[in-house]
Amino acid sequence: MSPVIILARKEAGELVFSPRGIAWLLTTSAALSVFALLLVGSTELSLLDNAEVVYDMAGLVTALGALLAIVVGNDSIAGERERGSLIPLLLTPMSSRALVTGKIGGLAVAWVLMLLIALPYFWAVGSTGQNLITGIVGVGFLGTPVVLGFGLFALGLAPRLSASRSSLIAALIALLVSSSPLLIGASLRQSAVGRVFDAINPFSAAANAFDAVIIDSEPLSAQAGRLGLTIIWLAITAWFALSGVRHLTR
Amino acid sequence: MLVEIRALSLTLGYQSILHDVSLTLGAGEIYGLIGPNGAGKSTTIAAALGLRKRDGGSIRIFDKDPNVDAAAIHARCGVLPEQNGFYDWMTAGNYLAFFARLYGQDRRRGDILDLLAQVGLELRVNQAIGTFSRGMRQRLGLARALVGNPELLILDEPTNGLDPHGRREIHDLLISLARRGMGILLCTHLIDDVDRLCNRIGIISQGCTIVEGNLKDLLESRNRGTQFRLRLTGPLPQGQRTLSHVAIVSRQDEWVEVNLAPGIAAADAWRELLITGWPIAEVHAAATGLEGLYFDLIEEKAP
Fold this sequence. Notes:
By secondary structure, chain A is mainly α. Chain A contains twelve helices and no strands. The relative contact order of chain A is 0.15.
């Protein structure tokens, strides 16, 4: 079996069996529960139409997925380095590039788990309308490159910075800035700077595509440009993560 | 030669860590690399394994350059590093099976049990590593180093955290591995470990190899007769600073280090000194053997 697969399986096992991984997944699940309860139980939010609710859920799952990917990506390099378990891995015959690729496999598993956890919540808030499948497929196509990109960004940042906390904070700030379309008002997004930022921001691309396919019922195939932007983001962050290999032994 | 390091120099950031480190290790040898804290022992190991890039000198492990063929070297080399972390959520058996797969070996449960038995952990195969004591972790680290059937074992402080019984077991294991032809590079502060296990040593201080060679030869070359440390309660009597059978080696405050001439019984020497008016309060045997050699050389090197 390839060392990449062996390592990816170990990473997946860590997420499911270690107290740390279980805590992350439970926290994610709790956040989705609170949000779903708000959408269903709050008098004002329950007046939103079904498409709006699914759109909100798609944005939240993508943002939470990116957050989880950053935490997992950072911990799999910087956390292991601080716990002293990275050096024994580097001393096996596996190449450093294979090591990082295996860690990327672990990130993919984390995102798949996150999607599986999110499915019942999607169903809970969107099962009464026509947008449930569109929302899930949209998150699968457009959310995946955005989420994995943030994980890869954290994976590339961790070997370059000396402390786990530094790399985690830097990656979280990047996520906060990138996900600002979910946080700031529509008028700010319509300003000149907001428009430029929207045009290059992968998170904006995903959010705008969710808006188009879930709320405006446009076909997914019409979102090729936005999907392209998220793929470019994924490619850049993959290069960033793999080029961090030479910093692994610092 | 399994390991051949010549005039190794290495800089971290702007600080020069190694200036001139050399060592050679052949199959079946146990080599003790000793030196004070910060001397550069662990950095030498990191450079030898390709984890640090050298500035100058040469390193050949299995006749390969670690900065070029690190993976090939790692495949034939078992390492217990200074930073020895584990996956606490795994059991000892699963942990070793995971590392065995990374070495391309499909170890069966029986093989894993045998490996754990070598380090005295066979009853802990299903126990989570998170519940292990420090000594048990050290043993597990040693089992991990052996998982790939290495030809060369590099161990950084292998007996750290072990009780005397555990230390003896690990000593016996290392001796038996060396008899089977494995080369072992032992990096430690414990001179007792080196004295008991090693047939070759290298002492490094401030990033330089001070001495390197066969332990027995080195000890014989530095044999200076019997040395003692005396604590005096007052000054030496006038005119008695040189004696026929006792040579003063050094004096610091109330302590005097003396060498007895060969064939002179210590009791006779003390009697003679007391009669001539030496105010002796205490007598201690000065460090001899490897410990004496180590302190002599480190003090000679000190600025």
